What does this fold into?
Amino acid sequence: MNRRLIFAVLGILCFAAAIAAQIAQPLEDPAIEVRMKNLTKQLRCLVCQNETLADSQAQLAEDLRREIREQIKAGKSDQEIVAYATQRYGDFILYNPPVKATTYLLWFGPFLLLVGGTLFLFRFLKQRRAMIEAKPLTAEERRRAAKLLREI
It folds into this structure.
């Protein structure tokens, strides 16, 4: 009976070790992981759009992280990897896109809308104020107002 128990425990341990070996990911070089983390914080997830590649859990983000890791291992510089990503996916992949002719509206559009909206508001209020005339009540209007107030 003891042999059976020992063989059962050993079998379970071997099975657990085999499963753990399949699940465990190989440990990467810490320097590569730091570079990859810094790079993925600069790039936007194409699926989530409001998250960086470092924060996203989307499958595409995982694929892009894997590709970045492979490029780091291949010896490419950070600038080369970012240039590759922007060439392939456009400036949209950059979490902070550069200021250039094609992104002026992105960078300055909100300020232009704010200034335009403020000017419109001031103009509207000025026109409205001009439409309201402050003239005193006539004797007839005063009598009617007094009568209405007494009825209440």
